[in-house]
Amino acid sequence: MDKMKLLKQVIDDLKHLSSSLDELCSVLEGQEEQVDSTVLDFSIESESKKITLEDVRAVLADKSRLGFTKEIKAIITACGATKLSDVKPQDYPTLLKKAEGLGHE
């Protein structure tokens, strides 16, 4: 008789577990939609921010102080310019990304 009670208890526990897992799935599905919209908002915000010459100049100055002057000149040359002021504004994001990567390789 004790085995039957134990078996019934196991079955009841499994039913409770199943119910809890269903609730968890419902909650996680709701959070997933919320996270997706947050990521979308972030990407829209970052696309709308324009990178200025001053932004690029600040990063390059920091990297130059860290000893990456030759690498910075090579990046500027790769953008088709001889000095920073000659770099086209549409190339600022590429230049900035390459410069920020210096020292992380």
How would you sum up this structure in a few lines?
With 105 residues, this protein is mainly alpha-helical. The chain has 4 helices and no strands.
Overview of this protein structure:
The structure is a single chain. The chain is mostly helical and 105 residues long. The protein has 2 domains: 49 residues; 49 residues, no CATH class. It starts with a helix and ends with a helix. The mean pLDDT is 81.
Largest sheet: none
Terminal CA distance: 68 Å
Query: Helix coverage percent of residues?
Result: over 70%
Number of individual domains? 2
Q: Report the order of strands and helices.
A: HHHH
- Large-scale geometry: rod-shaped
Query: What is the beta-strand fraction?
Result: under 5%
Instruction: Assign the structural class, choosing from mainly alpha, mainly beta, alpha/beta, alpha+beta, or little secondary structure.
Output: mainly alpha
- Tally of strands: 0
Instruction: Count helical runs.
Output: 4
Rounded to the nearest angstrom, the radius of gyration is 28 Å
Uncertain regions spanning at least 5 consecutive residues: none
What oligomeric arrangement do these chains adopt? single chain
Mean pLDDT across all residues, rounded? 81
